[in-house]
């Protein structure tokens, strides 16, 4: 009995030690797991979704053919640019991205950035505001194209940062984003936060925005069309992301988690060089620059690591994103540098003083239709794939896309089987059909009719009238 008691006591000690050990191990492992999430960008209480909501549609790879898209800014209709929605060559496009609605830093709500341009500006008979004009063109067009509402942009970047700190504001952002999209007749949302920062909760908040918006879109689709199973073939609202085209900002995003919600990654393959750069360089080159001009043997050849092709490969190879979800961004503007220090015909990787610019308010920017600069000749670097010109008087160098680069980029998109291409921004293109970037690109890539607008469907129009009777664009549907 005495012996037995001893054994039991020993057992007890053994179990106490095991429990204490288990407790210690758990204490070590749990925070470690948690830390791992924080390192990936999560903050306390915010966990990235590990499983997709069963109700949430996995984005499809989209229709056959290639997207041909352009951004249209709501400052285009003013003065010097004087580019109205009716001037957008929609018969050659699959998407018009309407830029920008902005984030209100105080409330998180999405709102118009210029209510005069968006809603008031008198355009065609009886139509006020660029939005209604654009949606009217879409409804009346025989050729299908989508209109997408863009949220944010470079000048709105601080607001995204601010609302990211509040779950309530992020929720408000998501609700109002989906509401504005549908209320104003758009077929989707393009998120443009430039850019979430590393070592913060911003990348994970961006992911949450995408998930929330996708859920909001799916819910709206269920309300309009009934359960997804019954109406598999109805068109879906589109979610795209204006995506940084360089590793530093791209690799901090939880790309594979985001890809559960994102239909198209709009890679911003431009602004590779600009007024912020130490030396001159192209800004929308397809391949790495510095391979041409070798014969000058300059020791100042710029060896920039930025190119469109590098960005595309990052997405496909490192992040395992299907090429069919990637759209290649192209520029309807050039970026220039003045007083370039060069003695020969090598203009890359050179010191410069000032950037000049033929487009007011935007240092260093020339719209494509202002190029080449008067008195200079357009030249082409077929290795990097960029047009450029050099004005000897002001010693100004400008790199840009032209008809020739459109042809090569079009072939690239077909060969790589990308989703398509887009331009920032519509007002920069040439009115001369022989010089038009959209023309040259379309000729190479063809025109897909698959990018159907939801607002061509009677069900959608009826639901809209029910939800927003007598709202800004309702009159477009009442007439039909
Ligand atoms: C350019 O940079 C890459 C990567 O940093 C390097 O491998 C290569 O040798 C450099 N080329 C020149 C010409 O400096
Ligand atoms: C890459 O994506 C495909 C499908 O999108 C998937 O089947 C595959 O497992 C992924 N590969 C890796 C390494 O994640």
Automatic annotation (TrEMBL):
SUPFAM superfamilies: (Trans)glycosidases (SSF51445), Chitinase insertion domain (SSF54556). It is an enzyme of class 3 (hydrolase). It catalyses: Random endo-hydrolysis of N-acetyl-beta-D-glucosaminide (1->4)-beta-linkages in chitin and chitodextrins. PROSITE patterns: GH18_1, GH18_2. InterPro entries: Chitinase_II/V-like_cat, Chitinase_insertion_sf, GH, Glyco_hydro18_cat, Glyco_hydro_18_chit_AS, Glycosyl_Hydrlase_18. The keyword Lipid metabolism does not apply. It comes from the Eukaryota. It holds the Pfam family Glyco_hydro_18. Its EC number is 3.2.1.14. Residues 66-448 form the GH18 domain. CDD domains: GH18_chitinase (cd06548). The chain crosses the membrane at residues 12-34. The keyword Membrane applies. GO terms for cellular component: extracellular region. One of its GO terms (biological process) is polysaccharide catabolic process. GO terms for molecular function: chitin binding; endochitinase activity. Keywords: Carbohydrate metabolism, Chitin degradation, Glycosidase, Hydrolase, Membrane, Polysaccharide degradation, Transmembrane, Transmembrane helix. Belongs to the glycosyl hydrolase 18 family. This is chitinase. It comes from Kluyveromyces lactis (strain ATCC 8585 / CBS 2359 / DSM 70799 / NBRC 1267 / NRRL Y-1140 / WM37) (Yeast). The lineage of its organism: Eukaryota, Fungi, Dikarya, Ascomycota, Saccharomycotina.
